[in-house]
Amino acid sequence: MKYTSTIWWSLHVLFAGVVPLQAGSLKNPGFEEDGGWQVVTQGSRFEAAFSDNTSQTGQRNFSVSLAWESPTKKEDFAGIVQVVELTHADKGISFTVKDNYTGKTKGYHWIELLLDEEVIWEADVAGGDTDWRMVSLDLTRYLKEVKRKRVGRNRYREEKSYKITFRVFERNSVSRFGVQVCADDFKLLKETPANPQNCEKKKVSPLLNELLVYYDEDGLFQPITKPEHFKKHRQQIIDGMLQGMGKLPDRPTRHSLEDFDIRVVNSQVRGRYTKKTISFEVAKGEVVHAFLYEPLDKKPGEKRPGVVGMHPTGQSGKSCFESWPLCNFPIELAMMGYVVIVPDYPGFGDSRPYDFDSDRYDSGTIKGVFNHMTCVDLLQLHPDVDPNKIGTIGHSLGGHNAMFLAAFDDRVKVAVSSCGWTPFEYYETKKGRLKTWALPQYMPPLETLYNSDHREFPFDFHEVAAAIAPRVFFSSSPTNDGVFPGWGPMAAAPHIKNFFKAHGAQKAFQFHQPLAQHRFPWDTRQAAYRSMNDTFDYHFHGELGLLAERNGKKSIPILKKALVDTDPKVRWAAADMLGTLNDASGRVQMTQDLKTFSSDRTHLEHALEVARVLAERGDISGYELAADLAANGTTRGQRWRAAVALAHIANTDKTTLQAAGMDPVAALKTIAAEEKDEGVFFVFVDQVHKILKDRTDMIDIFAIARESKHHAEAPPGNRFRMAEIFHDVSVRDKDKDWR
Known about the structure:
Blueprint: H1 2-15, E1 38-42, E2 47-51, E3 61-66, E4 77-85, E5 92-99, E6 109-115, E7 118-124, E8 133-138, E9 148-152, E10 155-158, E11 161-170, E12 179-189, E13 213-215, E14 221-223, H2 227-245, E15 263-270, E16 273-283, E17 286-295, E18 304-310, H3 329-335, E19 339-343, H4 364-381, E20 385-395, H5 397-408, E21 412-418, H6 424-427, H7 445-448, H8 461-468, E22 472-476, H9 487-502, E23 509-512, H10 522-536, H11 542-551, H12 556-562, H13 568-580, H14 587-598, H15 604-616, H16 623-632, H17 636-649, H18 654-659, H19 664-674, H20 678-691, H21 695-706, H22 722-732
Parallel strand pairs: 18-19, 18-20, 20-21, 21-22, 22-23
Antiparallel strand pairs: 1-4, 2-3, 3-12, 4-11, 5-8, 5-12, 6-7, 6-11, 9-10, 13-14, 15-16, 16-17, 17-19
Helix pairs in contact: 1-9, 2-8, 4-5, 5-8, 8-9, 11-13, 12-13, 13-14, 13-15, 14-15, 15-17, 16-17, 16-19, 17-19, 17-20, 19-21, 20-22, 21-22
C-alpha cells in the first residue's frame, strides 16, 4: 500500500493541471464565480486569494499580498494559472492590474504574465500607483509555430493547450517591505492590440524529458505504475546512453586479484593508509594505471567500504588530487579508513598518449565506463573490501563519470557527483558548445549520429540520475559553476526528487547547491562523507561515530557512558564525537588518558590521538608531548600525529600560547625543514593546510617546507614539488577562509 500511494502521489504531481476548455475561451475571467483558475505558490510568505475587497468589474478580483516585515527568498512567487486552447484566431490577451506600492525600491517584487513557461509581460511594482491599469499583449508572435509535445521516443503530437500564469515573483529576496497586487478582468482578444505591452522575448527554461514514464512497444510514453516499470525505464535509459556512447564490451570474469596482473610500481606509507601506484589489466592488452589507497591498523578480517575515485580534467589524471589541496577527497577518504582506487581516465595521467581512433571502443566515455566497472571488480575481490559496500565519487569530468558508473553498475551503492552535470540544453550556454561532448575522449556519436542537437540526444543527465535510483545519488551543483551551469541541476532536481520518491527512495536523492564556483567546498564534502558513512553503516569511529552523525545531540547520553569504556580507542572516539556536538564531557577523561599514555612509551600514538582530541576543543595540555615527538618520534605514526596535534594547538589564541611558553608554529616549521620521510611530509603539509586557521603562519610554514633539502624533487606525475603547490595555494587564498 505504501508503494501504491507513493506512485499515485508522484503521478498526481506530474500530470496535475487544469482541464483545457474549448478553444478561445477563459473560464471565470473576472473571478465572479468559482473554478477555472488554480492558485500556485512557491515559498510560504505570500498570500493569494480571490477576494471582494476591490474590483475593476463585478464584485471580485484576485490578489497577492505580502505583509510588511515578512522576509522572502529569491524566486518565491504566488499567482494563478489556467490552461486554455489557443488557435490562430486568438490575437491577444488583456487584463487589469494594480498594486499598492509607491516607493522607489526597484528590482524586488515583479508582476509577470507567462504563456507556458515564457514571461511575455513584466512590471516592477516600484513607483506604481494605486489605480487600475489595463495591460494588452500580442499573442500572435507566440502562436506562429506549431507547438509540439513529445509523447514517446522521437514521437510528437501537435498541442493546442497553453498555460496562462499571472503571478507576483521575487527577483531578489526582501526582508521588510510588503506589497499587494490585484488583477481582474482577463480577456482573450480576437484582434491584435494596437499598442501591445509585451516585454522583450525571454529565454524559456528547457522542457526536460519526463521521468515517471516508460516507452511501450509502440514507443509511446506510459505512466510508471508498477515496480517492473522502473526496471524497464532504467533499462531504456541505459539503452539511450549506449546509443550516445557506443557498445559496452563484456568484461573478463575474474576470481582473484591475481587475475588482474597487478603491478605495484611504488608504495608509500602515509598517515592511516598506504598509497600504492599500480597498473593492472582490464582486458587483454588493455592496462589501466591507478593509485590504490589501503588502510593501516585494520583489525584482522575487518572489511571496509571501497570507493572508485574519479579525477577531474587535468593532464596529470589521478595525480590531480596529489597536487590539489582544496579537493583531494580520495586522500580524505583514505584517512577515514576507506579503500580507494583512483584510475587514470583514458588520455590522462599515465594513460597518455591514448589513440581513441584505433581502440575497440566507440567513445572515450564508454572506455571509461569499462575501466571503472573493472575497478569495481577489483575492489570486490580486494581482501580489505566488503564487496557489498562499493561507492564512487568524482569532480567535474570525474563527477559525470561517477554518475555513468553508478547508472551502468548497480553494485555501486552510492554515487557522489561534484560539478559533474547539467541537462544538455543548459550546457549550451553559447551556440556550438555542445560539440565539446563529441570530442574523441567523450562521446563522438553525439555528433556523428545526432549532429550535436540536444533535442535528438538519446539520453539526458537527469535521466542518468534516475537510473541510479533507488541507490543513493549525492549531487553537489554549485550556484555559480561556470562549466556545468548550476541553474540546470536546480531545474532538474524537483523532477529527480519526484522520481526517487515514487521509487520509494526519497532520501536517496541528496541535492546540494553551495554558493561556489566550479569547486567541491569543504562543508559539502563533509556532507558527502556523512552520506557515504550512512549508506555503508561505516564510520572511522565505529558505531559511536555513526550514532553521533545520525542522531546528533540525542546520542550524547550514550557517548558519555562510553567515556569510561575499557578500550582507550572507544574513549577517545566518544570524546571526539562529543566534541563535534559541542559537549565537553570528555575533557576530564581525556586529560587523565593523556597522562597515562604519555608515561608509557608503547602507547605514545594513543597519547597523541588524545592530545589531538583535546586540542580540537581548545585544551593545549598535549603541547609538550607533541612538540617532543614531532622532532624525536621514532615512528612515522608518532611524527605525523604530533604534527596534527600541533596544528590544532596553533589555532589557540596566541596570547594564551605565549603566556604558557608554547610555540606550536615554531615546532611546525622545524618539521617543515627536517622531516625526511616523504609519507610523513605529505601528511604534514596536507593536514596543516586543512587545520591551521592563520593563513600567514601557514604561508611561513610552507615557505620553509618548499625549500626542504629532503624533498627537492617533484613526485611522479607532478611538475611541482609538493610543498611548493601548497605554498602557492595558501598565498593565493590568503584572504579567503575556505579549505
